[in-house]
Amino acid sequence: MAYDKFEILKSSAVPLPIENVDTDQIIPARFLKATERKGFGDNLFRDWRYNPDNTPKEQFVLNNPTYSGKILVGGKNFGSGSSREHAAWAVYDYGFRCVVSSFFADIFRGNCLNIGVLPVQVSAEFLDKIFKAIEADPNTELEIDLPKQTITLLVTGEQESFDINGYKKENMLNGFDDIDYLTKMKDEIKDFADKRPF
Amino acid sequence: MSTTLFDKVWDSHVVRKIKDGPDVFFIDRHLIHEVTSPVAFLGLKERNNSVLFSGRTFATADHNTPTINQHLPVEDPLSANQLKALEENSAEWGISHWGLGHQNNGIVHVVGPENGITLPGATIVCGDSHTSTHGAFGAIAFGIGTSEVEMVLTSQCIMQPKPKKMRINITGELGLGVTPKDVALFIISKLTTSGATGYFVEYAGDVFKQMSMEGRMTVCNLSIEMGARGGIIAPDEKTFEYVKGRPLAPKGADWDKAMTYWETLTTDEDAVFDKELTFSASDIEPMITYGTNPGMGTGISNNIPSADQVEGGEATYKKSLDYMGYAEGEAMIGKHVDYVFIGSCTNGRIEDFRAFASIVKGKKKADNITAWLVPGSHIVEAKIKEEGLLDIFHEAGFVLREPGCSACLAMNDDKVPAGKVAVSTSNRNFEGRQGPGSKTLLASPLVAAATAVTGVVTDPRTLL
Questions:
Q1: Per-residue pLDDT tens for B256-269?
Q2: Edge-to-edge order in the sheet of strand B164-171
Q3: How many domains does chain B have?
Q4: Residue among A103, A167, A183 minimizing CB distance to B21
Q5: ipTM value of the model?
Q6: Is A175 touching B (CB cutoff 8 A)?
Q7: Between the N and C ends of chain A, which has fewer C-beta atoms within 10 Å?
Q8: Bridge partners of A9?
Q9: Phi, psi at residue B145, to the nearest 5°?
Q10: Per-residue model confidence as pLDDT tens digits over A58-113
């Protein structure tokens, strides 16, 4: 019930070739004050995307109409820092369904998987190829095939496989989440809790 | 088979192992605050679920609270709304709630240990990445996302693949003016912000054995800044001494039973880690950061390294220095500073204020410095007064504010203005972390104090 099913995604991609993109850049703390999960996409990369007077920064990739798509391609160590799930919400709410990088921070990766954004980790070489292909043609498309666990640069056919554990893969394919699983285990959990020393 | 401390605690909390999937992992104690919990409670309602064990969750308000005039209504309507949501959700489900003005209120990672919520051998989570702090007690503690907050409320469990294990040993003795913060910033500077991603880190060796509980909390707190999910230190006499008598710690026969268990919480001598690193304490000096992530730190007497001396891409490195307005090869000592912030879950405990006082005593705050002294909790605040530190601060021209996360993430009004430079005892120097356009230099309370009285980045050893 939790989110849309994810099977095969074919889309152009938005490049962000910066390393160590932290969750404070993805969504600054001052935009975490909502009590509902709504509208976070408006503030995705807020301070890279807008000037202090709220006019768009022309040079930032999200303000450049040349680039669009449901895939965000980031540099190494994407999503480091704060555990704020709002960062993943902002990515999703903006319209991305997949983030590609050569390395993800742990909590961000987990948060993405929990809300239906697929984190695809590729080799540094493949990431470089993707950035170059987008540079050559901003409309170039990537295909993410979750059942086969592959990512393909359609223009050249170059392909790499990516890891995801079987449990999470099933969840993404079916649009299930962990709460669906855990609520079926309550009796087992209660028995376990009874045996805890504190 | 020989096992590590981490294995012992982790394995004893696995309710179910999923083949080719995560472990269903039981959480003993769950901390919540106003920013990352409201959507979790909404989710709970939308699914018609209820809180499974309300006695295992503890709420405190800290992230967006003002640090002056806490007795007045919170002016910012969005912050007030989040605080109200925390209060109402806690009341609805029978969860302990330490709101603004409550005597136990303070930063979630300060009040947990203070009140005995944090225990050796426990599993502790919170929707905040610095939950790693609690590992100082031999607990497995780490930050989670809001979906996971909802999982814990609903089922007292989360789904987690077991991380790999790393041990970081630091041998020898720390030199004069070198604090736990410097130890942590030193390790992060060696490992980079992603060097421990996928690992849970045990800190071992003389330095951590000698270290106070407050110091251990500072080190474990910063584990996330090298990408690790958490850090853990084997509990010892100091740990038990700290925990004993805390309001929510076990008492009487329960205490004795707990002690029997806690004394088993060590890493076996021949246990093997996936990765093991050893550093020498004598190589560590007071540290300061010069860039826009916590891995960009150096000994305070060093110059800013050139791009070819650091890991990672040159473009990212240059972008970072450009943001700071610094150039490769420049000295850090003597750099202009506008703000000094002491506080946060990293360095907002009594020992940090004692350290700050040890330097500013008998001196005066520099005129160009705006200083924010923010205790981690009301209990810390009370101790500052009790120990006479407040008088020292007042005489030196400093004012003490009320507890909260404050300028660490600048969700409240404690924002460093654009273009201004702050020396901060907090945990992140990301672009705009302390306010849009602000620049942060992370350092210890001693470096912060030395800078506060001289007005420029200063090596505290020159004032000790």
A1: 999 999 999 999 99
A2: B230-232, B199-204, B164-171, B275-280
A3: 3
A4: A167
A5: 0.96
A6: no
A7: N
A8: A144
A9: -85, 175
A10: 999 999 999 999 999 999 999 999 999 999 999 999 999 999 999 999 999 999 99
